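Pilot study result, target chain (346 residues):
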Amino acid sequence: MPRTGPPGHTPRVPAYTIRFPEGIEAFVFAQYACQADSAEEAARGANALAGLFAGSHKPDVLDRGSFVDTAGSHNVVWLAYWHDPHQYELWQESGPVRSVWDGLPSEGPVGHWREACVIPLERNETLHSHRHEDIATSGLSQHAAVEMPETPVHDYWGAARDRIAASATETLEPALPVFVPDIRRDGGTYGRRVAVEVPDNVTLIRTAQDWSASTKYRERYLADVKPVKDRGVDFLAANADSGCIAARNLIEESADGAPLDRACTIAWFASLEHLMTWCRSHRTHLEIYASFYQMASGGEAPLDVAFWHEVSVLPGGSVTAEYVNCHPGTGFLPLPDRRHDVAGSA
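Predicted structure:
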């Protein structure tokens, strides 16, 4: 039940949260990407990595998407989930994966990056506008073993924190209370392979929209909600004083790169409080919030555009970030005094 919600609170629309089978205490979310000046070069690079996700110990869920970052570079990203961290360890230590990642060129027209995190369930929350049996979407909801009961813990400021079990006993205070990017010309990884030590309690959000099965709300979503959402993501990507370290507005794709009627935003914040402050007080998110509820509450038919998000607060040592031949604004590279050159490793 809500810990900080208004007394007698009743959400305006139903929503569902994920409940994993007993015995699962953590899962892995990893992004493996190719970066290039053109969409074609980035896609070729990503296609060259595709075979890695089809072998032994492959991900339980695999999505793909592409975006253009604030430097104008094209990025094609594999979004992979393992529901057993040990299976991920076996995968990344396998010969094929180590050989390909260790052998990536540190010079030339393309770059590569990976960001992987082991997420304790007590540090994660999810929220869906639909159960996975109603509309098949991406991310954690594709895992057939999860249950998705309805939850009253939403539709009030602070609900995301309440859905994170660890917030009942931990402050989740950040090791990086203020994010000041350090984007120097020599801060990129052109010709180099660089790892970044990620601070304790950074916050990851993946929020997604799926209008592929929509017949009632499709046009309204695309005209009234999606443009507002895109403006909000653009604001985060360009304004580090929001506490957002990186924001990516992805168009999701099929395994062969064809665009789908799905999109997602993946963003890293210095802390959960930075994310929540933007959500409850900045006009760009308030406009997103208002446009969603105007659509969701204003129609007679059930909402048939699927929305969901995952928010995780990551403990120290749970995030791996590595960049090969990438520009200085990529991912965690703008974090000052946390970069170090490494030998090739998976």
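One observation from the pilot: Helices lie at 39-49, 85-92, 95-102, 159-163, 218-238, 272-281, 283-297. A full batch analysis is planned for the follow-on phase.
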